[in-house]
Amino acid sequence: MGNNSQTRFFSSNFLYKQFFGHILERDDGIDAEQLSQLTLNSLEKAALYRKWPGIATLLEELEKELQRRDAKLEQTLFGCNFQNPLGLAAGFDKNGIAASIWHNFGFGFVELGTVTWHAQLGNPKPRLFRLSKEKAALNRMGFNNRGASKMKETLEKQRLPPPGSRSSIIGLNLGKSKITALEDAPDDYAYSLEILGSLADYAVINVSSPNTPGLRKLQDSTELRKLIKKLRRLTSCPPLLVKIAPDLNNKEIDNLAQVAYQEGLAGIIATNTSLDRLGLEKRIILQTGKPLSLEQGGLSGNPLRSRALEVLRRLRKNAGEDLPLVGVGGIDSAESAWERIAAGASLIQVYTGWIFQGPILVPHILEGLITQLNRHGCRNIKEAVGSELPWV
């Protein structure tokens, strides 16, 4: 009894709620970006010194608490063996500082970045805002990162096992440097991938962030084909996916699905953050005093759930059953995760929901998926993908 109580008392969920719970219940208080950076500073140290006895023990205990292993959750996609379908979306670990320990948090994969060829500071601060009541966030970070060369140094310092022999899959999210002209974008992406490609299990072409001027123009079929062909010529090119915006119309979504299929992409990630305010146009950002309708940046979190699901269903309908889809946007529960898989996602990612709920969200989702697979008599998660089986 005493040991169980002690385990619960010192669980990651308990500590997260104690340290962050009251902060995340309010829009104001500690700046959202500062809070993230404090967390990342700790994770960076843990990753570098993960083999030290005390830290190693802590990480092992964390994995026991958060990881859920079940053969039903395992699948192989684009040459990568995923232990489970749940990943951490790009945007949190922009510089790859904790690449070696994300599996300890229960994730089957992590997407590092977005990284650009040139290091850049990003947009002026403040640029990340909590919308606590709506379990959402507004960000206009602008691809702030240390650059591709620095990320390579960071990953090499962690002495990661090579691709194919890691505890979790590592993806690399690539963006265009702000100083690079749009017509030179293929070279910019290529320089980053040439530096980092050999370290990644897969790479993502991010052409959908709303916070780099002109970037979304690269979602145009002609421009995207140019970009894909440029990257494919690299000897170090891993499987390529593309990440798209939720604000595309049906024709644009269909065109992208066609390009992905014709060019042999490994998959599509749907979706990035939204420029649509999704019914929250009059919501005031406390730090600026302005309504969302007048604020720049992409909206993420629970309000995006419905639209991200619509885009995913449209892609599944037009891309065919063989092209893997990754669902992201508004996933903050086991039910919303199952909904995305049943609609056609082979993999799912979390970010904003994970921030608001903490590490416990990962085992909650994985346990929920296992329960649904059992209730529906599915032998593997692959049988549920695109099945439209209900949550029961």
Going by CATH, what is the homologous superfamily?
Answer: Aldolase class I
Which CATH first-tier class would you pick? Alpha Beta
The best one-word shape is globular
The level of helicity is: 25-40%
Note the quaternary state here: single chain
SSE order, one letter for each helix or strand: HHHHEEEEEEHEHEHEHEEEEHEHEHH
CATH structural fold name: TIM Barrel
Radius of gyration: 20 Å
Give an overview of the whole structure.
The chain is an alpha/beta fold. It has a single domain, classed as TIM Barrel (Alpha-Beta Barrel), CATH 3.20.20.70. It has twelve helices and 15 strands. The strands form four sheets. It has an eight-stranded parallel β-barrel with strand order 3-4-7-8-9-10-14-15, surrounded by four helices. A three-stranded antiparallel beta sheet has the order 5-6-13, with no helix packed on it. Strand 11 and strand 12 form a beta hairpin. Helix 5 packs parallel to helix 6 and helix 8 crosses helix 9. The longest helix is centred in the first third of the chain and has 17 residues. The N terminus is likely disordered.
